[in-house]
UniProtKB/TrEMBL annotation:
Organism of origin: Herbaspirillum robiniae
Designated name of the protein: OpgC domain-containing protein
PANTHER family, A to Z: BLL4819 PROTEIN (PTHR38592:SF3)
Alphabetical list of InterPro entries matching this protein: UCP028704_OpgC
One Pfam family named in its UniProt record: OpgC_C
């Protein structure tokens, strides 16, 4: 499997943070109606989109963090860390919902309506605030871009089971994951939901990519130096096959009339998985060549966004929502390419600024903690 190089001692991987930053920026522009850059993101050229990449990276980073904590402080500390992470993600979901509702209330009060505002559920919330609020609290209602956070919360809570299982019995765990993916539409009925369609992202299906991310971190490919001639030949054949599959899906996406509908994404169809795995292999080969690290070194602000993923995701939902609303109002719903590009660049600049600010705050807290510890030790 794949491993992105990390720092000594199981630290963060520059490549993972870079990819996560790129994906967060993609998510923002993908949700701006009239976006120009959105015409050149993954969803235009592949059967999958940024969500698959984000879930895979979440599994990969979770495995790295869990094992690092376990080696340093023990398994119990790692378990508690990810239980707290689940609670943090739940609070982030509620914060995202609250911010979207606040923005919706503001534009409703100003009598400025756009189609995107309907996705925030502001209309139903105004009519029945207690009922709608309770549905949001129990995750039965997940407005707009907040819908991915409950799935991540469940993955964080399941990490104390998934990570040790992958470490000890990877093939058994993958087999169980595949089985759950196969019956995911049936299991989705047990999730709280106010509509027959259920959650936007069925976690019983999407856990497959999360588990694959964990496997890639804990059971990486051998280094080139350890490969014999047969291994090199197999790798080249796999690379050619992956390139053929990726090109095939590219042609399908660009030249074939294809409208899969929401269920295709909701339950993570096999076409999406196959397309993603082919591209994943090709990207892994680029990582092994060092190309991605060189690119990441030249784009440190993107890496900073990736290092502050949760803060940037919550902020990004507001940025994309606000950019979409303002672009619609400024152009009467018919933006030109240059206007869409201005909205894109403004959103990206805002994301980069938030990433820098979040990193500065994180560094400040670390310095303060060290200074307090040093002062206490001195006394």
């Amino acid at each position: 499997m794949i491993k992105f190089p990390g720092t000594a001692g199981g630290g963060r991987s520059l490549e993972v943070d870079f990819f996560r930053g790129v994906v967060l920026l993609m998510i923002v522009v993908d949700h701006i109606s009239g976006s120009m850059l959105g015409q050149f993101t993954l969803q235009r050229f592949a059967i999958f989109d940024a969500t698959e990449v984000f879930v895979f990276l979440a599994g990969y980073a979770t495995a790295a963090a869990y094992t690092s904590i376990a080696e340093r402080s023990g398994n119990e500390a790692a378990r508690w860390r990810f239980l707290r992470r689940g609670w943090q993600l739940y609070r982030s979901f509620l914060l995202t919902v609250a911010l979207m509702l606040a923005l919706g209330l503001l534009f409703t009060a100003l009598r400025l309506h756009t189609p995107t505002l309907d996705y925030t559920d502001i209309g139903t919330f105004i009519d029945e605030p207690l009922q709608i609020g309770s549905e949001m609290l129990r995750l039965a209602r997940q407005p707009y871009l907040s819908s991915i956070l409950p799935m991540y919360m469940l993955f964080a809570l399941a990490s104390p089971v998934i990570v040790p299982s992958v470490r000890r019995r990877p093939w058994v765990t993958v087999a169980c994951s595949l089985a759950m993916w196969g019956v995911a539409p049936l299991l989705a009925r047990f999730l709280p939901a106010v509509t027959p369609n259920g959650w936007t992202f069925n976690p019983f299906a999407w856990q497959l990519l999360f588990v694959i991310g964990v496997v890639c971190r804990l059971h990486p490919l051998k280094s080139y130096q350890r490969e014999d001639a047969d291994a090199v030949l197999r790798r080249r054949k796999l690379t050619r096959a992956a390139a053929a599959v990726a090109i095939g899906f590219l042609c399908m996406r660009m030249f074939v009339e294809f409208d899969p509908g929401p269920v295709f994404k909701q339950n993570l169809s096999s076409l999406r998985v196959g397309s993603f795995m082919a591209v994943l292999w090709l990207v892994a080969m680029m990582v092994r060549q060092g190309w991605i690290r060189e690119l990441a070194d030249r784009l440190p602000l993107v890496v900073t966004v990736g290092r502050n993923g949760l803060v940037c995701f919550v902020s990004g939902t507001m940025i994309s929502l606000l950019a979409d609303i303002l672009l619609y109002l400024a152009t009467n719903g018919s933006p030109r390419n240059w206007q869409g590009l201005v909205a894109d660049m403004s959103a990206i600049a805002s994301m980069l600024a938030i990433g820098v600010a979040a990193q500065a705050w994180k560094d400040y807290r670390k310095r303060s903690k060290r200074e307090r510890a040093h002062a206490a030790h001195a006394h």
